[in-house]
Amino acid sequence: MKIRDCQESLAELLAGALRANPAGTPLGRSAQAVLVMARAYESDGRTFLASGDPVNALASFWYGFGWIHFGVAYGLLIDNGNTVCPFHEPCENLPPEFSAQLREKTERYEHLLNIARGSVACATEPATETYGFAVRVLLIAEVYAEKGWRESEGRRDEDALAAFSYGHGWLDAAVTTGLCRILAHHELFTV
């Protein structure tokens, strides 16, 4: 997927996003937090793209998709049929002049996601529905860490960075909404 197309898809998804719960409730506030963060990453990505930094734009957009997809899956946001999977096609290849920056950022984000995955735990009781969803979030982060690793091994750094960013977005959203708690490395999360 072209980075510009990813930005447009994320912006469209955010424009139509609705909270599923009243604003004053804890779930309504959690939905608002998810929207604020997803919008911030979409805005950051747009700024990076406009300044000629497609590497950071790519990471920002896919991180934003992680947040918004978390919100829909958790039931905080209403899916109006606009939910797009940014992984339906490979990322566009960036020009060669970005190769070193892309490789460095991909390796760093792989490392950060692996540390983040080991730094959180489910925050709810095992017999609850929220615990089951928290476990699912941890699994999603693992799946995207593994996808990123496979892409990185194949030297498809754009797709690897997208996967690492997306998986970390899910984890970050789970911590922010209270599904997961931070055991270590608090600085890796936006809470």
Summarize the structure.
The chain is mainly α and 191 residues long.
Structural account:
With 191 residues, the chain is mainly alpha-helical. It has one domain (3-80, 98-188). It has helices at residues 3-15, 26-50, 54-74, 99-117, 129-153, 157-176; strands at residues 18-19, 77-78, 120-122, 180-182. The strands form two sheets. It has a two-stranded antiparallel sheet. A two-stranded antiparallel ribbon has the order 3-4. It starts with a helix and ends in a 9-residue tail after the last strand.
SSE order: HEHHEHEHHE
The number of helical runs is 6
Class based on secondary structure composition and strand pairing: mainly alpha
Helix share of residues?
55-70%
Mean pLDDT: 95
Rg is 16 Å
Poorly predicted regions are none
Distance between the termini: 30 Å
Number of domains: 1
How big a fraction of the residues is strand? Answer: 5-15%
Multimeric organization = single chain
Global morphology: globular
Largest sheet: 2 strands, antiparallel
List the strand order in the largest sheet: 1-2
Secondary structure tally: strands: 4
Write out key terms for the chains shown:
single chain, mainly alpha, two-stranded antiparallel ribbon, 64% helix, globular, 6 helices, 191 residues
